[in-house]
Amino acid sequence: MYVNITKQDGYAIAQLNRPEVLNALNIQLMTELVDTLESLDKDSDVRCIILTGNEKAFAAGADIKEMADASAIEMLTRDQFARWDRIRRIKKPLIAAVSGFALGGGCELMMSCDMVIASETAKFGQPEINIGVMPGAGGTQRLTRAVGKVKSMEMVLTGRMISADEALRWGLINKVVPVEYYLEEAKSWAKEIASKPPVAVKLAKEAVLKSFDTTIEGGLEFERKNFYLLFASEDQKEGMKAFAEKRKPEWKGK
């Protein structure tokens, strides 16, 4: 098993488990990870998902040995990145808890998540240029949207790693904490999100992500429709009634 799962307090933790190779993302691990995330996405007891590795590495990149001798047609036929498209379709919030290396595919996997908690030891980078290629799982696109053109060019063209503090200043991650607390902090965030109305959380995530795919006009229209749609939910009625009655709402996810 390359992905370990634990569940508690309305959220789940998916932990990458190839420590001997710093959680290098081979095809088997990625297949198992995507299948796991899709299963958790369908689990009504899970309202938020934490994706993590270990203290030494979130994921140090793709498994180079699997690709080194491949031809262009082999890579095309293999459809190396189809699994990544499935991660993008996960509806529940994904929180990356990162310590140590998040490089190449590991950095791209982290950027596929919705929020990022990092330890002080975390290192981020897209070093693919150093082995004769470039990011291929969204690195040039998500990184640019997160940190802007010049910073993205710096990381992609030089292959330089940045520290957790730099990543925080650049807007790539949410928070930096001491290494002994990074997973606990992610659990705290996940527990808080899991306490919110599930349907509203899903539609709010969907609307935020839509902003990257459309114009401001299209995004505003999409947001408005999702807002109106929530008035068909039992949770909307319960939430507003509880507010008026000055009590804690009881969410049903309906």
Structure, explained:
A six-stranded mixed sheet has the order 1-2-3-5-7-10, with helices on both faces. It has 254 residues and is of the alpha/beta class. The chain has eleven helices and ten strands. α1 packs parallel to α3 and α9 packs antiparallel against α10.
Strand content: 15-25%
CATH classification class of the largest domain: Alpha Beta
The CATH superfamily name of the largest domain is 2-enoyl-CoA Hydratase, Chain A, domain 1
Summed up, the helix count is: 11
Structural shape: globular
Rg over alpha carbons: 19 Å
Number of DSSP E strands: 10
Q: What does the largest sheet look like?
A: 6 strands, mixed
CATH topology of the largest domain: 2-enoyl-CoA Hydratase, Chain A, domain 1
Report how far apart the termini are: 34 Å
What spatial order of strands do you see in the largest sheet? 1-2-3-5-7-10
Determine the structural class based on helices, strands and strand pairing.
Answer: alpha/beta
Mean pLDDT comes to 95
Count up the domains.
2
User: Percentage of helical residues?
Assistant: 40-55%
Indicate the low-confidence ranges by residue numbers.
none
Helix and strand string, N-terminal first? EEHEEHHEEHEEHHEHEHHHH
Query: What is the CATH architecture annotation of the largest domain?
Result: Alpha-Beta Complex
